[in-house]
Design brief:
Length: about 375
């Protein structure tokens, strides 16, 4: 039998699964209207379209929000016994669907199912012969996450079930441009199984791997593998907890999310200082990094275009690799449960994930865990 690594290489060469990028990310939430308002006023997204009772949809209410090349959908149930309601009851607000754009939904769906994906929705045409989208959906390895495959055809809108919303006054622009990567948290011992799924079924390759020696503090540790598609436009780091003296941030997530799921979404900007200043002005809360982090920062990552004092005041982290450097910062959890949060990232050549910041970041997270009584 072929090894998983060789299988993955051959499947990518077959060139059957071609993903152009992330089409949209759908969240299942308790109240879609309130969630849409939050992402508009806090993060600067624009509500574009709506689906619900008024558009002939009887079981759910959804809002489409856009900023740059980022599309978010927030969906809540209109009935107490639907799959959406059960998802929210179990997990709280969280990512349900990471939709991937394709040129030929039928071919991609058939290839994924042939390789072991569990079908959720067979290829379906929505619209007319001249204006349509085609959609199919498969389950991820396990857990309540799915991937829809979206073929956009000639349809100018989002989907025919959505109606355009009137323009609302928006807060100042925050400069968010695209989804850089999305991070999964999975149970101890499950990282390789999830990784194998994305390699063998979805045709992804492994870009990086981190062990507990790379990502640890004196209290906790985790392990991670980074998967990406052939164009490198879709990146999914997959984390699992490692043994430590106390509960890791990954285990805290798993406990409160009640299973594996998306821990955070990294959104890219080309001016992180302006973006973070505006987000803070909008009321977004970020993790606090101790001033000691910045004491030897220039020695580790110089030269920088940004002033250290500005980075220190905003609590922005910096890391450098052979191709350049990156700047990043992480919000606190966005809901009552300590689960989903957002990363803001600016890349100036660097293609990594801030390896040099792991210790400082996780110590900041552990301070928040301690406040919650979960460390």
């Amino acid at each position: 039998m072929l090894s998983t690594e060789r299988q993955s290489t051959l499947l990518q060469k077959e060139d059957l699964v071609q993903f152009k990028g992330i089409d949209y990310v759908e969240f299942y939430v308790g109240n879609a209207r309130q969630a849409a308002h939050f992402y508009r006023t806090a993060f600067g997204f624009t509500p574009i379209a709506y689906a619900g009772l008024e558009t002939g949809v009887r079981d759910r209410c959804s809002f489409l929000l856009e900023q740059g090349d980022i599309r978010l959908v927030v969906t809540s149930s209109l009935t107490p016994d639907s799959a959406i309601a059960r998802h929210v009851e179990l997990h709280g607000d969280g990512v349900y669907d990471i939709a991937l754009q394709v040129d030929d939904v039928q071919t991609v769906f058939q290839a994924a199912v042939k390789r072991g994906a569990r079908p959720i929705l067979e290829p379906t045409i929505v619209g007319t012969q001249n204006e349509y989208i085609a959609k199919a959906t498969v389950a991820s390895y396990e857990g309540d996450i799915v991937h829809s495959f979206i073929e956009r055809g000639n349809y100018a809108g989002f989907t025919p079930q959505y109606q355009h919303l009137p323009t609302l006054p928006n807060p100042a622009a925050t400069g968010l441009m695209e989804i850089d990567h999305m991070v999964f948290n999975v149970e101890l011992g499950k990282m390789d199984l999830w990784s194998n799924f994305y390699q063998t079924v979805m045709g992804f390759g492994q870009a990086q791997q981190f062990t507990s020696d790379d990502i640890s503090t004196k209290y906790s540790a985790l392990m991670s593998k980074v998967l990406q598609n052939s164009t490198k436009r879709i990146k999914f780091p997959i984390n699992e907890p490692a043994e430590g003296y106390r509960k890791s941030q990954i285990q805290e997530y798993l406990d409160f999310y009640n299973g594996p799921g998306v821990q955070h979404m990294a959104l890219r900007t080309d001016n992180i200082i302006k973006t973070v200043q505006q987000l803070k002005s909008n009321g977004v809360e970020f993790l606090q990094i101790p001033d000691t982090y910045y004491k030897n920062l220039l020695h580790r990552v110089s030269p920088l275009d940004e002033e250290i004092e500005v980075l220190r005041n905003l609590k922005i982290l910096v890391d450098r690799d052979d191709e350049g450097y990156l700047l990043q910062i992480f919000t606190k959890p966005l809901a009552g449960r300590p689960t989903f949060f957002i990363e803001i990232i600016q890349r100036k050549g660097a293609q990594g994930f801030g390896n040099g910041n792991f210790k400082a970041l996780f110590e900041a997270i552990e301070l928040e865990q301690e406040k919650r009584g979960n460390l």
